[in-house]
Design goal:
heterodimer, A: 262 residues, mainly alpha, MetI-like fold, B: 262 residues, Rossmann fold, 2 domains, 23% strand, globular
Chain lengths: 262, 262
């Protein structure tokens, strides 16, 4: 009897949740006066427009060297922001993790700072920094730097606590000094995850650099913005194609590095 | 002169939990002491107070007549080099080789810089190989620790403790994660270290029969209090029931059986 009640209750909860989701969707459609049928039928139309206009032609290919130059800038900004921010994040993470922290006050401070940096979106950072650095690569660099820093501190703190807490205890018990414990136990234990996350951040930064570029007027994002707004769709599509290929190449490269390290 | 004297050692976690409740005992050089008691009785806390991995709330311990509570910095590190520690989960750096893990036992003697870059003398390396050979690990010396079995990992842990040239070895549940045959090898090794090298051994154990068979002396604890302290021959069933807070017949073990095995 009791068991039956339990299952009936589970079903009721599920049905209730389902009805709620349907209700919210329907309500939103009503409020925004969204025409579902028109929305779905216009998808093929959008694609045929894309197919007609977004095809790189000869004129666009002439612009390729210029696009590649901008791409290089974007890639370099992404890599340098990811690596430098990760190095700084490692230091803060060592001071912030439960295993290797020096005192609790600093640990809370490190985690708090990381949370703030991480939870402000990269585009918000770009807009904020635009005031201080204007339209330059610096703005993009620092926007990517801050977000990477916040994210890496969080990830590294978790990696350190998860991977090395036991061996840190053992080394402390042998009388090893703090710096020896870090270099002989924490870093060797964390290296695979660390490399993997840095590569992940480089990939992510290249993707976000495009958006940041649109906002700050630098790099490949700026090229796209410029061609798109001047209705030079064939050149804009070439930019997209180049970005997609770059991201795929970098992902392939970082996957092979990951396999070698792990 | 006893090697270790504990005087009214008390450890509180927060306001409520009393892990160690006014414990006093002394341990002579060369003793093989087993500490038994239910989970949460304070066995691990007691062991970690000896090398100051955990700070006691009140009371003091004297190691070679020196009060350990006042040790700071280098003095504390020196105190820890005198005491090896072995863990239930081996606490090795799994990505490093066996010999690197063994040499970690020398870090307590290193200057900051030498420890940081892991600079070991030829003498230390030879000693590491000697110890590993004695423990039957000569074929594993350059293997990575994650390729070893549990019993082999624990022997690496013992080697790391031995290379410290310690006066005392603390073992926190050294055989709790091992199968019976690996467990026997480890306990025999500890006994051999105790007899051949004269190193004092203190072992936390869950297996009462193992404690009765190997130890010269038994300390039974329950809720942070010493219930029994004496020769394994002197303990009677009623005292074991008292240590584990159980009624007669509720434990797997009865004394007559284990004496028959010994």
């Amino acid at each position: 009897m009791l068991k039956l009640d339990f299952f009936a209750r589970q079903r009721l909860i599920f049905a209730g949740a389902f009805a709620l989701v349907i209700g919210i969707s329907y309500g939103s459609i009503m409020v925004t006066e969204y025409d579902v049928v028109k929305g779905i039928t216009s998808i093929p139309k959008a694609f045929s427009w894309l197919a007609e206009n977004f095809i790189p032609n000869d004129a666009a290919m002439k612009r390729l060297p210029k696009i590649l130059e901008k791409l290089q800038e974007t890639i370099l900004v992404s890599i340098s922001s990811a690596t430098v921010a990760s190095a700084l994040a490692l230091i803060v993470a060592l001071l912030g993790s439960n295993t290797t922290r020096i005192n609790q006050g600093f640990s809370i401070f490190a985690r708090g700072t990381a949370t703030i940096f991480r939870n402000i979106d990269v585009s918000a950072w770009a807009l904020i920094l635009l005031f201080s650095f204007g339209q330059s690569s610096f703005t993009g660099y620092f926007a990517l730097f801050f977000v990477t820093f916040g994210f890496m501190v969080r990830v590294l703190i978790e990696t350190i606590d998860e991977v090395s807490s036991e061996s840190v205890e053992a080394l402390r018990a042998t009388g090893a000094s703090y710096t020896s414990i870090i270099t002989q136990s924490v870093i060797p234990s964390c290296i695979p995850q660390m490399v993997s996350w840095i590569l992940f951040m480089i990939e992510t930064n290249i993707r976000s650099a495009t958006l940041v570029g649109i906002l700050t007027g630098t790099g490949i994002g700026f090229s796209f913005d410029l061609y798109y707004k001047s209705m030079n769709y064939s050149a804009a599509s070439l930019v997209i194609l180049v970005i997609v290929i770059t991201v795929l190449i970098i992902e392939f490269f970082s996957n092979s590095v990951r396999r070698a390290v792990l | 002169m006893p090697l270790l004297v504990a005087k009214h050692v008390t450890k509180r976690y927060g306001q409520q939990t009393l892990a160690l409740d006014d414990m006093s005992f002394s341990i002579e050089k060369g003793e093989f002491v087993a500490i038994i008691g239910p989970s949460g009785a304070g066995k691990s806390t007691l062991l970690r107070c000896i090398n100051r991995m955990i700070e006691m709330s009140s009371g003091d311990m004297f190691f070679n007549d020196v009060s350990i509570n006042n040790l700071r910095g280098t003095d504390l590190r020196h105190h820890r080099t005198q005491i090896g520690m072995i863990f239930q989960h081996y606490n090795l750096v799994n990505r490093l080789s066996v010999i690197e893990n063994v040499l970690h036992g020398r870090l307590g003697y290193k200057s900051t810089l030498a420890g940081m870059i892991g600079l070991y003398t030829e003498e230390e390396k030879r000693q590491a190989i000697d110890i590993l050979t004695t423990l039957g690990l000569e074929e594993q010396i350059y293997k990575r620790c994650d390729q070893l079995s549990g019993g082999q990992k624990q022997r690496v842990g013992i080697a790391r403790a031995l290379i410290q040239n310690p006066q005392m070895i603390l073992c926190d549940e050294p055989i709790a994660s091992l199968d019976p045959s690996a467990a026997k090898i480890i306990m025999d090794t500890l006994k051999d270290i105790n007899q051949r090298l004269g190193i004092t051994v203190i072992v936390n154990l869950h297996q009462v029969d193992v404690a009765l068979r190997y130890a010269h002396r038994l300390i039974g604890v329950n809720r942070g209090k010493i219930i029994f302290d004496g020769s394994p021959r002197a303990i009677v069933n009623e005292q074991i029931y008292q240590i584990y807070g159980s009624e007669a017949g509720e434990l797997i073990l009865d004394l007559e059986d284990s004496y028959a095995k010994a």
